[in-house]
Automatic annotation (TrEMBL):
Keyword NADP: yes
Organism: Goodfellowiella coeruleoviolacea
Molecular function, one GO term: oxidoreductase activity, acting on NAD(P)H
Name this polypeptide is given: NADPH:quinone reductase
Pfam families reported for this sequence: ADH_N, ADH_zinc_N_2
InterPro entries for this protein: ADH-like_N, ER, GroES-like_sf, NAD(P)-bd_dom_sf
Tagged with keyword Oxidoreductase: yes
Residue ranges annotated for the Enoyl reductase (ER) domain, each copy included: 13-323
């Protein structure tokens, strides 16, 4: 059996626990697709896996909830060998081995076809980032042109993507950062009103939008959610999607005290099916045409995975961290 290089995690630990090893190339069975991985993006989900915050992981495991590359084998005939694809979610890197490898085998339902001349590193930044941003905006918030939206956690990869997609959809965008030095970067990505996040921003948001925003995407966590709700208009909607702060729970949650009168609270934690193939292709085409800016903070080699995770853990990146494999 042929071998490949892959990042293997034996259990929760520091960044050094992510070790590149030589392991057998996985076999694909009917209903599954083997992808020759060209690149993959890093996600907060993999940080949670490494630090022991993930629920019900299987160890040892190859992490990675997304990857892009070409079809190497599809016994069920769903795809042709050599076809460009993205793979995401569906249990990748949690229930079975994921994308931190030269090859990965995933359910056909987790594979999305794509045609593009984008370089692999740029394409590798897109699948999970776009899936989460698209799902949060359209499933969680049901955004409409002309609305105002607050993206809390605006310099994260999903935050940047959500701001760009919302702006492209015709919304006025407010987005936050805790670092004054990053306010200009938000503006460069089309954010209309960069906001310095001091932990309490509702008053500042309402100074910009007196009645409160129509929609708000919460990516920081439960610790900032009450303040985000206070920044939102009556009949406006807040979607809880991310936990960049690793704060998952509001202690002694009393809805009447936390949720303002008439403000709607939803959540998003969807799957690849929430990003239809035609929507993914449309976004990829917009990126290729220069109409949808994508921020790739840095591209790493597979052997640099520990350093990439360190940068992610420390919140040093603006945009997406990507690993180029082939």
């Amino acid at each position: 059996m042929a071998n490949m290089r892959a990042v293997v995690l034996d259990g929760p630990g520091p960044v050094e626990a992510l070790r590149v090893r030589t392991v057998p190339v996985p076999e694909a069975r009917p209903g599954w697709v083997r992808v020759k991985v060209a690149a993959f993006g890093l996600n907060r989900s993999e940080y949670h896996l490494r630090t022991g915050q993930a629920s019900n992981p299987v160890f040892p495991i190859i992490p990675g909830i997304e990857a892009v590359g070409t079809v190497d084998a599809a016994p069920g005939g769903e795809y042709e060998p050599g076809q460009q694809v993205a793979a995401m979610m569906g249990g990748m890197g949690r229930a079975f081995d994921g994308g931190y490898a030269e090859y990965t085998v995933v359910p056909a339902s987790a594979v999305v076809p794509v045609r593009t001349d984008l370089d692999w590193a740029t394409l590798g930044a897109l699948p999970e980032m776009l899936q989460t941003a698209h799902g949060s905006l359209h499933t969680g918030l049901a955004i409409q042109p002309g609305q105002t939206i607050l993206v809390r956690g605006g310099t994260s990869s999903v935050g940047v993507a959500a701001a760009v997609l919302a702006k492209h959809a015709g919304l006025t965008v407010l987005a936050t950062t805790r670092d004054p030095g990053r306010l200009a970067a938000l503006r460069e990505h089309g954010v209309d009103h960069p906001v310095l996040d001091t932990g309490s921003i509702a008053e500042e948001v309402r100074r910009i939008v007196p009645g409160g925003v129509d929609a708000a995407l919460e990516l920081v966590g439960a610790n900032t959610l009450p303040d985000t709700l206070r920044a939102t208009a009556v009949r406006g909607t807040v979607c809880f999607t991310g936990m960049l702060s690793d704060n998952w729970v509001i202690p002694d949650f009393y809805p009447m005290a936390v949720i303002p009168n008439g403000v709607r609270l939803t959540a998003y934690s969807g799957e690849s099916s929430d990003l239809p193939a035609e929507a993914f292709q449309r976004y990829v085409d917009l990126v290729a045409a220069g109409e949808l800016p994508v921020r790739v903070h840095r591209v790493y080699a597979l052997d640099e995975i520990a350093e990439a995770h360190r940068v992610m853990a420390n919140g040093e990146a603006i945009g997406k961290l990507v690993v180029r494999v082939h």
